[in-house]
Write a structure and sequence with these properties.
The chain is an alpha/beta fold. The protein folds into two domains: 155 residues, Aspartate Aminotransferase, domain 1, CATH 3.90.1150; 247 residues, Type I PLP-dependent aspartate aminotransferase-like (Major domain) (Aspartate Aminotransferase, domain 2, 3-Layer(aba) Sandwich), CATH 3.40.640.10. Helices cover 39% and strands 17% of the residues. The chain contains 14 helices and 15 strands. The chain has a seven-stranded mixed β-sheet with strand order 4-10-9-8-7-5-6, with helices on both faces. A four-stranded mixed β-sheet has the order 1-2-3-13. It has a four-stranded antiparallel β-sheet with strand order 11-12-15-14. α4 runs parallel beside α11 and α13 packs across α14. Bound molecules: pyridoxal-5'-phosphate. Pyridoxal-5'-phosphate binds next to α5.
Length: 437
């Protein structure tokens, strides 16, 4: 093994060695897929909005230096290895913290719960912690069922809320059928269609769950008035509204919450639950949150405060750094920066779409969350590879493969946006050249 003593944690393996080990011990089909793409995007060095691959497109060639416009759906909202978050984690370790004990009380869970309550819309003021987004979604659905004493759940076609128990049931059949996992109590309807929602919500429904901007579903923008009407229908029938802000929350849209002014500035909807994941980890320690209105607490915890637990969900270390992350990302100056950069980015993407309107159908988005829709999946797939080779990491949407999802870290600067746009444009030009030959 070529061990570089100076880079103890990165560059331990060559790309070839890694692919072999990964295939043998982790996930063979995934390795075959990446090989099929002709692109081994293996994260190597990372810093700020930059991510270097372990090696170049051909084995043994220099690494690609990518602008990370995936941000892993928001995990890297503050970029890779943000110095303030690293410092806070180091301080927390030096200051005596570890994971903590989930059966006991915790200072940092209390402090983070308070911070979240200050930032939440309406009277959402209680938080149950988890490790992953899927776990926090499961928690919300569990709690909605406990409160309403009803079983049914309505979600959107193409929506994605995770691959765990209830979360998986809310998603598309492709992901649950192989596991023989389905239930007549879970129903999907077209996103953004208020009549479909009206028909689906009956008095035996426990909850509606929606992403503010469905990410895997294609960065879809609901028509103005959709969410307020969904809220009204839910209120009318005693149904809980669960809002998944795993990707659109924490400032991504330029407002702190997508559902509360981020989608449309004058549309401020207060759901019953807000779920966060990904960015809650502050990129350094897994954490997810399910926040809800106080009346829900009684229905869940009154008879047994241990009825729902998660050993490492809400760890002291995770809560301490998430507190710092919330302080950074909720600062009005930070949000104004996201809005300004988002505007520049949106204008630039529109220009690119206009120049290549023969293959690009539409751009849509809010803040620094954008979708680029192609006329067909082949162009989208080849376009993704071509843009990556041009130096911008992005991907197509899992449930709408004709659309790229583009989410730069929220700390991106004007000059970097200009450079990213140059590279995306170059990637599209290269795609057209490949298509011609
Ligand atoms: C909108 C949304 N909700 C929930 C999840 C599930 O999060 P996790 O993978 O942490 O379980 C994801 C993950 O991609 C997501 O995009």
């Amino acid at each position: 093994m070529n061990r570089n003593p100076k880079e103890k944690y990165i560059g331990i393996l060559t790309q070839k060695e890694l692919l072999k080990l990964y295939s043998k011990h982790v996930n063979g089909p995934k390795v075959r897929m990446f090989k099929g793409f002709g692109l081994g995007v293996i994260p190597g060095e990372r810093d700020g909005i930059h991510l270097k691959t372990l090696e170049g497109v051909k084995p043994g060639t220099p690494p690609l230096d990518l602008y990370n416009c995936r941000s892993s759906g928001g995990v890297f909202n503050l970029g890779h290895r943000n110095p303030r978050i690293i410092q806070r984690l180091k301080d927390a370790l030096d200051g005596g913290l570890d994971v903590g004990d989930h059966l006991l009380l915790s200072e940092w869970r209390a402090l983070l719960g308070k911070k979240l309550a200050e930032l939440m819309p309406g009277d959402i003021s209680k938080t149950t912690f988890g490790v992953s987004g899927g776990e926090a979604i499961d928690t919300a659905i569990k709690f909605a069922r406990a409160y309403t004493k009803r079983k049914k759940c309505i979600s959107a076609d193409g929506g994605y809320h995770g691959h765990t128990g209830f979360a998986l049931l809310t998603g598309d059949p492709d992901f649950k059928d192989p596991f023989l996992w389905n239930s007549p109590n879970f129903k999907q309807i077209p996103y953004g269609d208020i009549e479909a929602m009206r028909n689906a919500i009956t008095e035996d429904v426990a909850c509606v769950i929606l992403e503010t901007i469905p990410a895997s579903g294609g960065v879809l923008i609901a028509p103005e008035g959709y969410y307020p009407e969904v809220r009204e229908i839910c209120d009318d029938k005693g149904v809980m509204l669960i809002n998944d802000e795993v990707q659109a929350g924490l400032g991504r849209t330029g407002a702190f919450w997508g559902i509360y002014g981020g989608l449309y500035p004058n549309e401020k909807v207060v759901p019953d639950f807000i779920v966060c994941g990904k960015g809650m980890s502050s990129s350094l320690y897994p954490l997810s949150t399910c926040s809800y209105k106080p009346f829900i607490e009684k229905a869940v915890y009154k008879d047994d405060p241990f009825i729902h637990i998660s050993t490492t969900g809400g760890s002291d270390l995770g809560c301490a750094i998430a507190h710092e992350m919330l302080e950074i990302q909720s600062d009005p100056k930070f949000l104004a920066h996201v809005k300004e950069m988002g505007k520049l980015f949106g204008i630039g993407l529109e220009e690119i779409a206009g120049e290549h309107s023969d293959i690009i159908k539409e751009t849509r988005g809010r803040g620094l969350m954008w979708g680029l829709e192609f006329y067909n999946e082949d162009d989208s797939r080849l376009g993704m590879l071509s843009i990556i080779k041009a130096g911008v990491l992005l991907n197509y949407c899992g449930n709408k493969k004709d659309t790229h999802i583009i989410m730069p870290p929220l700390i991106v600067k004007k000059e970097e946006i200009e450079e990213i746009l140059i590279r995306i444009r170059q990637g599209i030009i290269n795609l057209k050249k490949i298509k011609k030959n």
